[in-house]
Fold N(4)-(beta-N-acetylglucosaminyl)-L-asparaginase.
Amino acid sequence: LFAAWKSLMQNSSAVDAVVAGCGECEAEQCEHEVGAGGSPDEAGETTLDAMIMDGKTMDVGAVGCLRRVKTAIAVAKAVMTYTDHTLLVGDLATNFAIEMGFKETNLSTPYSIGMWKNWRNDKCQPNFRKNVSPKSDCGPYTPNHPFTDKNDQHFAQVHTRSRDISGKDNHDTIGMIAIDKNGDISAGTSTNGLTNKIPGRVGDSPIMGAGAYAENGVGASVATGNGDIMMRFLPTFNAVSQMRRGMDPDVALRIAIEPIVHFYPDFKGAMLAVNDKGKYGAICHGYPNWTFCVANPNIGDVIMINTTCLGFM
């Protein structure tokens, strides 16, 4: 956040401030959950998701499962700036990045490779597979027949396990909102996704309305947590829609998170929202607490705020 705040103090646009802030976290490999060197997939590879949204124009650029390029948020901005598309994914997103002058490099580090080897040595447990065999070892996997009681029992067991491994240490996304001197608003995200995810997985972070959403004159919202669940409800779009109806950020967030909790009472996630006047709110569910950062002219610097979460067992 320091880089984003510094950028705004130098009169940058909201979009450039978000790119600067997320880019700093990518470079610093924040908690090994953003940028290179963390969250290896089943094959041991680190891939990146990122998105930037301009609330003034409603333009969006995003990348999913980006391979071998460290600066995912900058590539997302390039998608927004140099194409008519919203989202590019996988190897072809990498090809686009190289065309735009980004450097191709290995995203793995000794730390991420060590994580992956430990997971392999533990028979690839836990993982995000369900309804497959083998259930307690590494693949290759084959689908189970879906119509037997025995398999139905297995389905429930695996589904519970898959929720449990999307916990506080396996969710972190950098989500950032900025309002510049002109009142223009932007929101963005960057992450290396879930540890041990199935190769090819794209989470909620690069999906407009799921990972982030922004609209001038209304506000913006960002989200983190179990993205495979949260993206089904477009929570950040919902939060901004509620603010458009006049709701304060805190109320908007509670309305946005309610349907997720209704269908998935054990889910873990958190959201931020800021309205166009700079009033902010936060909500989280399934963790004991959650910390976010704020900077504005009244505060004068970056501060950390801790909030108690809903639904923590």
